[in-house]
Design a protein that fits this description.
With 458 residues, this protein is of the alpha/beta class. It has helices spanning 23-32, 60-67, 77-89, 101-112, 126-134, 162-172, 196-208, 220-230, 239-248, 274-287, 298-311, 314-333, 351-354, 364-376, 385-388, 415-430, and strands at residues 47-48, 94-98, 118-121, 138-141, 180-183, 213-216, 252-256, 267-271, 346-350, 378-379, 381-383, 403-407, 437-442, 453-457. α2 runs antiparallel to α11 (298-311), α4 (101-112) runs parallel beside α5 (126-134) and α12 (314-333) packs parallel to α16 (415-430). The structure holds pyridoxal-5'-phosphate.
């Protein structure tokens, strides 16, 4: 007998209190935070769906692994355990540990980026795009057309448009394209997976032009699970083997261990090319640390190594994807427009459709994120014009989509927490017509969504 309820494949071992606040308290907190939810103190947030990055619960075995950490400066056994766990899934010749994913990006693009170069991806994540552009290179998104349509029911909406990639390389010149990237799953495009067939094709096109192919593999396990569920020929495959096949088509990868590797901190850069590895290691020593610890403590390396083995477990992934869909289904039933199909790590509300009266340059996604906090203490994240609207030349243009991402920290919230989130979203929907647009009063040029201050346009 198989039951239809997919349960959490764990029980609670240690608890952390969360504080209930009133709507008046939250209104005051928002004004103080310049209407940017990134500026809110976390203790004033009830359900924190800002990000799934580093916010998950570690397992008993990960905490045990932390005790096993060895803090030797060079050649720590914790490094060997980490290295073995990484190469067990991603068999690259060189693994370079970093403190986060963006440190891996910073190192990679300082070596291979620069003016006149262009880096295509399905959709660059915000830190990836920023690190490419910081070197003077251009970041280009080539996701398939369905990837821009919140309603299109394509099983692999994160796929890259192969014809567009061919045209792009022909027009740019292969010598100006230092790497082709694929983000799996496609975070900024709605947490949508990339098919094995597409990974294989992108790899073939890149290699036909002598260009290396790298994965931004932060959500590799969720991507592998979707391949298992949706792609012909993989239903009976082991998740770890699907991951190994994905990696086999690539020449390297960047990784944030704060995502699927179930760490609170960590990341790595890996590749096969020995010369590139030498250049990257030299940068690593300059900015992160010695090559056997990078930007990490030995205990962090061990926690990530243990997390990697848990991330590819069938029961964990089944629960993970079912619990994200549960939020999507609840919002859909309440008539709230969300990106379809439901993503792996997050549900994305379509703020453009929910708040059609707000001009994109007045940030409808930000307005919705502010309202979710004000009404119910729920913190989500705008992924729209506030995040992506600023152009390298200083002008502003509307983003392709105006979304609010409700990211689900791994193994952290229960079904009743999610039922509450659905209720809050439903209440915000009933107030939608009265929500204002926003203008920026203060903000930096790069990654402005993190620190900008705003005010309502009334
Ligand atoms: C989180 C993330 C990064 C950056 O990783 P950090 O650890 O936050 O620096 C890069 N790419 C994708 C797809 C991500 O989700």
């Amino acid at each position: 007998m198989t039951f239809k309820t997919v349960i959490e494949p764990f029980r609670i071992h240690s608890v952390e209190p969360i504080r209930l606040t009133t709507e008046d308290e939250r209104r005051a907190a928002l004004a103080k935070a310049g209407y940017n939810v990134f500026n809110l103190p976390a203790k004033e947030v009830l359900i924190d769906l800002l990000t799934d990055s580093g916010t998950g619960a570690m397992s008993r075995d990960q905490w045990a692994a932390i005790q096993h950490g060895d803090e030797s400066y060079a050649g720590s056994p914790s490094w060997e355990i980490f290295h073995a766990a990484v190469t067990n899934l991603f068999d690259f010749a060189h693994v370079i540990p970093t403190h986060q994913g963006r440190a891996a990006e910073k190192i990679l693009f300082s070596v291979i980026g620069g003016p006149g170069r262009s880096v295509p991806s399905n959709t660059h994540f915000d830190t990836t795009r920023a690190n490419v552009e910081f070197t003077g290179a251009t970041a280009v998104d080539l996701v398939i057309a369905e990837g821009h349509d919140p309603k299109a029911l394509h099983p692999f909406k994160g796929n890259m448009d192969i014809a567009a990639l061919e045209t792009f390389i022909a027009e740019t010149g292969a010598e100006n394209v230092p790497v082709v990237m694929l983000t799996i799953t496609n975070n900024s495009g709605g947490g949508q997976p990339v098919s094995m067939a597409n990974i294989r094709e992108v790899s073939a096109v890149a290699h036909a032009h002598g260009i290396p192919f790298f994965l931004d593999a932060c959500r590799f396990a969720e991507n592998a699970w979707f391949i298992k569920l949706r792609e012909e020929g993989y239903a009976n495959a082991d998740v770890a083997d699907i991951v190994r096949e994905m990696a086999s088509y690539a020449d390297g990868m960047t990784m944030s261990a704060k995502k699927d590797p179930l760490g609170n901190i960590g990341g790595w850069l890996a590749m096969n090319d020995p010369e590139l590895a030498t250049q990257c290691r030299n940068m690593l020593i300059l900015t992160e640390g010695f090559p056997t610890y990078g930007g990490l403590a030995g205990r962090d390396l061990e926690a990530v190594a243990q997390g990697l083995s848990e991330a590819v477990s069938h029961d964990y992934l089944q629960y993970r994807i079912a619990s994200t869909s549960y939020l999507g289904e609840g919002l859909t039933k309440a008539g709230i427009p969300v990106v379809m199909p439901y993503g792996g790590h997050a549900i994305y509300i379509d703020a453009r459709e929910m708040l059609p009266h707000i001009d994109p340059l007045q940030y409808p996604g930000q307005s919705l994120a502010v309202a979710l906090y004000e009404v119910g203490g729920v913190r989500g994240c705008e992924i729209g014009t506030l995040m992506f609207g600023m152009q390298p030349d200083g002008t502003e243009k509307p983003a392709a989509m105006e979304l609010v991402r409700l990211a689900i920290p791994r193994r952290t919230y229960t079904q009743s927490h999610i039922d509450y989130v659905i209720e809050v979203c439903t209440e915000v929907k009933s107030r939608a017509r009265s929500l204002p647009g926003y203008r920026i009063t203060q903000g930096p040029k790069v990654l402005r969504h993190f620190t900008a201050r705003l005010e309502p346009v009334i």
